[in-house]
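Q: Sequence in, structure out?
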Amino acid sequence: MKLLVFDLDGTLLERDGTLDVRTAELLKRLESVGIRSTIATGRSLKSAMNFVESLSITVPVILFNGARIFDPTSKNYLYSKLLPGHVVEKVVSQCRNFNVAIFFFIDEDVYAMNVSLHATNYIFRDGLSYHPIDDLSQLHTARVTKLVFTGLSSELNRLELLFKFDHSLEMNATRSEEDLLEVLPAGVGKAEAVKWLCTFLRIDLKEVVAFGNGENDSQMLRIAGLGVSFAFAPETVKKCAKVLLHNCGYLGLKEFVEKCVEKVVFS
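A: Exactly. Output:
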């Protein structure tokens, strides 16, 4: 066990989206015995940076569900992949009959169309600030890292099916939360990013423990040496894990250490 890879929301963070100071302290104690940590999140760097700094993470972090990997030490992106401009345009055109808000992530900026009350939870949860736009003519569509759709779950379910059955689209659609549907570049995901990171760090995948609670974490849990999820996660996600915890946040981390890590950490 050399590397712990954590999803943030509903996993390493508390249920209210905050970081318990005891979590940072426990991860430091794990690092002192040779177990390093990083995060794999759907968030942007701007949204995740406060947690990266609070946790004193030095291992490269996985952002945008794997579309970008950022090195906190050098302050540079090590890996980045963009959506093709024509895919962005086609996806947006297919959404005209759906009651959803669309968020476009370009570098460190966020642009949004059709924002309604359904997007409030997402905006608050991720601390998003965005530039409202009326149409794609106000965007450089070839510079989009990912798209996020928010709305009623029923609308997102229909939209997800539409995307997945359109094989002409060079992209990957994934659900990170019940109220979110994300569109990423083809071949992008947390599992692929973890594999890239292991090659970069010269760590065997068998030495990785991955933690997550969402559909977008499933493949990462499968490919890691040990996949860890939660009793409250969807059944499809729990099936990908070998260990289930009762709580997220500090209590979940403490439960994992007591179950799976040598007692020397607590001595």
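Residues 85-185 form a domain with the Hypothetical Protein, Haloacid Dehalogenase-like Hydrolase; Chain: A; domain 2 fold (CATH 3.30.1240.10).
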